[in-house]
Amino acid sequence: MLRRKPTRLELKMDDTEEFESIKKELENRKRQCEETSCPSSGGGASDVEPRPSRAEIINERIGFKPQPKMAAPPTFFGNL
């Protein structure tokens, strides 16, 4: 197996400034949403459907649809 040198990542000042600006923007949005009781936070509305569980989200993403197991027919060989 051929080994290659590790990829070198460089962090520039522009990247850190962009990260900080996005972080501040998200914090401001979150703060505004909390102050105005944002409806996206699920403020107890009864007509909103419940969020799916983590397992359901993963199953949907990978296309897995679990089916209930059928009861096996009784075997008489072990009961004699």
What does this 3D model show about the protein?
- Helix content is 40%, strand content 0%.
- With 80 residues, the chain is an all-alpha fold.
- The longest helix has 23 residues, at 13-35.
- It is flat and about 75 Å long.
- The mean pLDDT is 79.
Layout: helices, strands, pairs:
Layout: H1 13-35, H2 54-62
Short structural summary:
The chain is mainly alpha-helical and 80 residues long. It has helices at 13-35, 54-62.
Count of DSSP E strands?
0
Task: Report on the biggest sheet.
Answer: none
What is the end-to-end distance? 58 Å
Query: Helix count, per DSSP?
Result: 2
Average pLDDT number: 79
The structural class is mainly alpha
Radius of gyration: 26 Å
Shape: flat
Compressed to H and E, one letter per element, the order equals HH
